[in-house]
């Protein structure tokens, strides 16, 4: 008999715990209350319980879930906003680089800036005081504003037309600078994961992934407070690189670098006299055993940088 009664009690408890959905009328009152007070106290919950014929516990849970929903929506909107700003930045950077490459190297004539061309000439200084009107000793002479001239500033007092071919043009300087290949190529990764060890870039100095074209080295630089660390390995140690979009984060992609041997990775710590070799600084020294390095970042930038890597290094095996 006791077992039968226990089973009846359990069935009653399970039936009482069944989730009941709020009616549209109840939801309307709850939503209206949430707009005014998203965190009601015990007294207000008791009033709502009598008004809506709902238990205080169910009302409390509803408000908790509603606050969590608002928080998640705000977080998602913030991430989308940051992603949009980041994509705009990379798009503008790529557009500026493309414009620099296609800009003309020589310009026959170019009008001076409008602000300098249309700027009126300053009034002439007043005549010096005569000997009869000289200031008394100890008195200060009137101060007149002066114009500070720099070697790159055109003279404001010369009204003749300047020959722009005598001075290096801005576009020409940019084009000449781009002809010099930069030895360091940055990889726009904001998340680095090796095994279960993960590093995220909350500030620009937290994580810096780059490729040394001259020495053929990949390096992951990490800053932890005032300490700086980095790991390096040769490009010959890369078995393959895979580029894949991240479905969970639109606009982002992942580079999966498969390493042939983790023993070839060198670890360094920044000291006053430079980089000093140290032991594996990752959690549980996973970088000394894991053969997969995952780099997450904006898909547009990662794809462009990967194409540049393969152009400079045709031997790299890229998979999609």
Folded structure, characterized:
The structure is a single chain. The protein is α+β, with helices and mostly antiparallel strands and 320 residues long. It has 7 helices and 12 strands. The radius of gyration is 34 Å and the shape is elongated. The chain starts with a helix and ends with a strand. About 18% of the residues have low confidence.
Low-confidence stretches: 105-109, 114-118, 131-179
Summed up, the helix count is: 7
Fraction of residues in helix: 25-40%
Q: Give the radius of gyration.
A: 34 Å
Beta-strand fraction estimate: 15-25%
Task: List the helices and strands in order.
Answer: HHHHHHEEEEEEEEEEEHE
Mean pLDDT: 75
General form? elongated
Physical arrangement of strands within the biggest beta sheet: 1-4-5-6-9-10
Q: In total, how many beta strands?
A: 12
* End-to-end gap: 67 Å
Largest sheet: 6 strands, antiparallel
Structural class: alpha+beta
